[in-house]
Design goal:
678 residues; alpha+beta; Helix Hairpins; D-amino Acid Aminotransferase, Chain A, domain 1; OB fold (Dihydrolipoamide Acetyltransferase, E2P); 6 domains; seven-stranded antiparallel sheet; five-stranded mixed sheet; 25 helices; 24 strands; 20% strand; elongated
């Protein structure tokens, strides 16, 4: 089948699926997927239609404005047609928009107004001689549904304006985060279906036939656009001031910007503001300020040219699976990985996503060729959430797990009660490679310059096969590798020398003991320090030989009781200690000059408290924040659970923030976190 014919089939399937999702979202006020997923599918459809314009049809979701009408309410024509805004997702798209509109007003300076994009339901009000007469939904842009009976219950909407004018005005009806939680608690108590998000709750409430339901749900509204008015308005800023003067609410977080630089500064500040707001927002609306320039710029068939909606980076996106490959980790775990068409998720380009294990892959019925929804798990690791089966063509292929290791061909096994298959060949090249990469990594021995590619080169050249070999390397050894010159080789040798002095917790973590992550390595190191009496000594000395001595005294029962380590990790530590090869390797590291540093812990307000970090911190890296928390006696967890005391929220937080809100975990802004550290 030709590429053109494949595109035609894909376009038809996308149109059908998007129409179905739009009906759920706009008419039924529910959705099987997030708005990010709908946006992602529309983006793909738009790109295909641009490449193959002969397949564009008038009923395509890219050619329509607004939504289907439900038929539940009377339809009324809008005085001023309601058009959707063009969505943009990056600075590049913002610059492109500014460049396009500047050409429409050559030589003229363009000022902008930035407004928060409220995540609610668009509404239009009609006033006659200052008195409220009607409220309409956006509908299909030409006519909307008459929802006057429910809008009348919104206390912040005046039944009479401050001036006796005729007015058509548009805004956004929303439900606050706090009210949304209360509504869903009530829905759950009454065994009713809960709303997916505040936007759906607002839409479902506005479309209630019984206005008393709307009255009980504390709807709110902000207004931002005047369609028909008796007096000319010169700028968008004047429009907002006029709305406020007439007695209607505006969102006060708007800003007039004299340049695109100021627009970007506003956008960059919004994530800080977002977490403090009592309502949901999903982006920033950027409008040209001058109404005269609005008239010169005009409209496309679908949207005004003078305004765009800058949407936040999507937490979810859609992509197609090109292949499924197997990855062998440092403990031998074999993980299926989806290789996909590149797509933007949460600010970065993703082309690979974990499928976790065979059971999970089969449960989701993931196949090569499928269109899938992906998201970043815990803000970092991309994972496949689900398959959009309606977009299947019949050409998709199931993936079958092999009976042997994909790297060494050795036997694989699956322990009872475990989901993952594991390569049992201890000499497997992949296990050796991943173990060494882990050993030199930033969170372990932190040997700068020894990244994955260099480790692979050293393995291929036969220069290393175990951690002690790294400390035997010479500058001359490194200079035998391709593209290695004297300076680069010497820098790595210097890094190796520096790494010989390592903190006890990072050294334990570097050993790659199964189930022993960063935090429980820290907890285990703290226990060893306490047991060896190192906390009572001002400048304690503790060698790897001393560590071996402490290891050999540990029993399985004692390991089980160490707070924070966990039962599985305890058994794994015991198995590691009892393996003579591991003890011999530790002795080698000691003989090669590796020395342990014992960090003294200060008692502070952080002592014993558990922290999780989400988003990007501006004053320090995430690793620096982790080290600071640990040095003050706190614990750093990778996921939000009931055991979490604080979630530190940086710029562009991920799904951890939603989980923290759900569990009632206290959140800290970066400023609040810094105060706690002082």
């Amino acid at each position: 089948m030709s590429e053109r014919e494949n595109a035609r089939i894909r376009i038809e399937k996308l149109k059908q699926k998007i129409k179905e999702l739009n009906y759920q979202y706009f008419v039924l006020d529910k959705s099987e997927v997030s708005e990010d997923v709908r946006d992602s599918l529309k983006k793909e459809l738009r790109a295909l239609e641009e490449k193959y314009p002969e397949f564009i049809t008038p009923d395509s979701p890219t050619q329509r404005v607004g939504s289907v009408l439900s038929g539940k309410f009377n339809k009324v024509a809008h005085i001023t047609p309601k058009k959707s805004l063009q969505d943009i997702f990056s600075r590049e798209e913002l610059y492109d928009w500014v460049e396009r509109i500047q050409k429409l007003v050559p030589g003229e300076k363009i000022n902008f107004v930035c407004e928060l994009k409220i995540d609610g339901l668009n509404i239009t009000l009609h006033y006659k001689k200052g008195k409220f007469i009607r409220a309409l939904t956006r509908g299909d842009g030409k006519e909307g549904e008459d929802v006057t009976h429910t809008v009348k219950t919104i206390e912040s909407i005046p039944m009479e304006l401050n001036e006796p004018v005729d007015l058509e005005i548009s805004g956004e009806v929303y439900i606050s985060k706090k009210t949304f939680e209360k509504i869903n608690q009530q829905q759950a108590a009454e065994n009713k279906e809960q709303f997916a998000n505040p936007r759906n709750a607002a839409a479902g409430t506005i479309r209630q036939l019984d206005p008393s339901v709307a009255a009980s749900r504390d709807l709110q509204a902000f207004f931002y656009e005047i369609g028909e008015y008796e007096f000319p308005l010169v700028t968008q800023e004047e429009t907002l001031r006029t709305i406020q003067r007439l007695g209607l609410r505006i969102n006060k977080h708007f800003k007039v910007c004299d340049s695109i630089k100021e627009v970007i500064e506003y956008i960059e500040n919004v994530p800080h503001l977002r977490e403090k707001l009592p309502y949901e927002i999903d982006g920033v609306v950027i409008k040209v300020n001058s109404k005269d320039q609005w008239r010169k710029m005009g409209f496309t068939a679908k949207a005004p040219r003078y305004a765009v909606a800058y949407k936040f980076q999507p937490k979810q996106a859609t992509s197609r699976i090109i292949d499924i490959v197997l990855q062998v980790g440092r403990t031998g775990v074999i993980t299926p990985v989806a290789v996909m068409e590149p797509v933007e998720v949460a600010g970065s380009t993703v082309s690979r996503a974990t499928l976790h294990n065979e059971d999970e892959m089969n449960k989701k019925d993931v196949r090569i060729g499928d269109t899938v929804i992906i998201q970043k798990a815990g803000d970092v690791i991309p994972e496949v959430v689900s398959v959009i089966k309606d977009l299947r063509t019949g050409k998709e292929k199931k993936f079958h797990f092999p009976n042997t290791c994909p790297v060494c061909g050795g036997p694989i096994s699956r322990e009872e009660g475990m989901a993952a298959y594991r390569c049992t060949n201890k000499n497997c090249f992949a296990i050796k490679k991943e173990s060494l990469i882990h050993f030199v990594s930033k969170d372990a021995m932190n040997i700068e310059g020894l990244g994955e590619k260099v480790v692979l080169q050293l393995l291929d050249a036969g220069l290393i096969s175990s951690p002690p070999d790294i400390f035997r390397l010479t500058r001359e050894d490194l200079m035998t590798l391709p593209l290695f010159k004297e300076k680069r080789a010497q820098n790595i040798i210097d890094s190796i020398e520096k790494a010989k002095n390592v903190s006890l917790d990072k050294f334990i973590y570097s050993l790659g003991i199964r189930y022993l992550g960063e935090q429980n390595s820290f907890d285990f190191a703290a226990y060893i320090s306490q047991k060896a009496g190192l906390n009572q000594t001002k400048n304690p000395t503790f060698s790897i030989l001393d560590l071996i001595h402490e290891f050999e005294k540990l029993t399985p029962e004692e390991l089980d009781l160490i707070e924070g380590v966990g039962e599985k990790a305890a058994q794994s530590i015991y198995n590691y200690i009892k393996n003579k090869k591991n003890i011999d390797m530790l002795r080698e590291l000691h003989n090669l000059g590796v020395r342990l540093i014992i960090k003294q812990q200060a008692h502070s307000p952080l002592t014993g408290k558990s922290f999780v970090i989400t988003g990007t911190l501006e004053t320090m890296s995430r690793d620096q924040a982790k080290d600071k928390i640990k040095s003050l006696g706190g614990r750093v967890l990778s996921a939000v659970t009931h055991d979490t005391d604080y979630l530190v929220v940086g710029v562009d937080p991920g799904s951890k923030l939603d989980k923290a809100k759900e569990l009632g975990i206290k959140t800290l802004t970066e400023d609040e976190f810094l105060k706690l550290l002082r």
